[in-house]
Amino acid sequence: MLFIQIDTNKELINQLSTLNNSNILSGIITGLIILLIVFVFFRPWFYISKKISVSDGVFRFKVINFTLIKCTEIDFYLRQVSEIDAYPKGKDVIHELIPINTKSFIYVPGLIRGLLNSHRPNCLQVKCTNKDLSQIVEADNTYLELIIKARHGISNLQTTKKRQ
Predict the structure, then answer these.
(1) What is the pTM of this model?
(2) Four-point Cα dihedral 157, 97, 104, 154, nearest 10
(3) Contact by Cβ (8 Å): 69, 41
């Protein structure tokens, strides 16, 4: 009789150990799915317009925040990129920062608030009045590059977006 109870206890322990292995596996899978959702939906998404609007010597770059929730600490960098032929082959790339009037924003509302409001608070304009950019754009092997660095309001994930 004593031996039978020990066998049933061993079977019970074996059943519990197999349940723990399946619980651990399902926990790992659930954690990976949650991480995927966080990295897709809780990071900043921006669109930078391909066109530069010019009026009275002021160059404007238009940016739209497509993040569902607000973004914070948005920084803008405008730089001139020049490619020069290197000896004996290849190219050297030279970066030069161009000063802009609006360098950073503390807070930008998300897409949900932007769709509900007719003034579109999720859209931004970056102005450059210090330098004539038309000469840079028309030059050979030279182009402009606008860089945005932003943090998500909830997850604090950071992203960098470039447009040439």
Answers:
(1) 0.67
(2) 0
(3) no
